[in-house]
Amino acid sequence: MEVRPARDRAEIDQALALREQVFCVEQGVAPAADRDGLDDVAIQVVAIESGHVIGTCRVLVEGEIGRLGRMAVEAGARGRGLGAAILAAAEQSARDAGARQMRLHAQRYIEDMYAAAGYRPYGEPFIDEGIEHVAMERPLA
Description:
The protein is of the alpha+beta class. It has helices at 9-26, 31-34, 82-96, 111-116, and strands spanning 2-5, 43-49, 52-62, 65-73, 101-107, 120-128, 131-139. The two termini are 27 Å apart.
């Protein structure tokens, strides 16, 4: 398995299809909420196994702040530590782009994975697209 920024449009298209499956089909998120127009300016991180994207996230970098979002892992690949590997690659991509801090909105059920990687919650939990989230952040320096 290889985890890295997407290299071409085909990999990005596979990542977007995976997000649609996980967020829209499995979780009931409206497609328009997932496709917010920011994908073309984001760093798309992909996990590839046997030529197929099985995990993804995106990173938006604004100055020294990286914003991780849209992490999704194919149902059959969950439970193998893929989320942590994608997170590490996303953090490195953000560092490479000049970010010194990473922020994200974690679905509450996966909050522990982010906490184990050093993320700390801030603010109150909130509902987005009918799913409970918490804002989290950590320094990258």
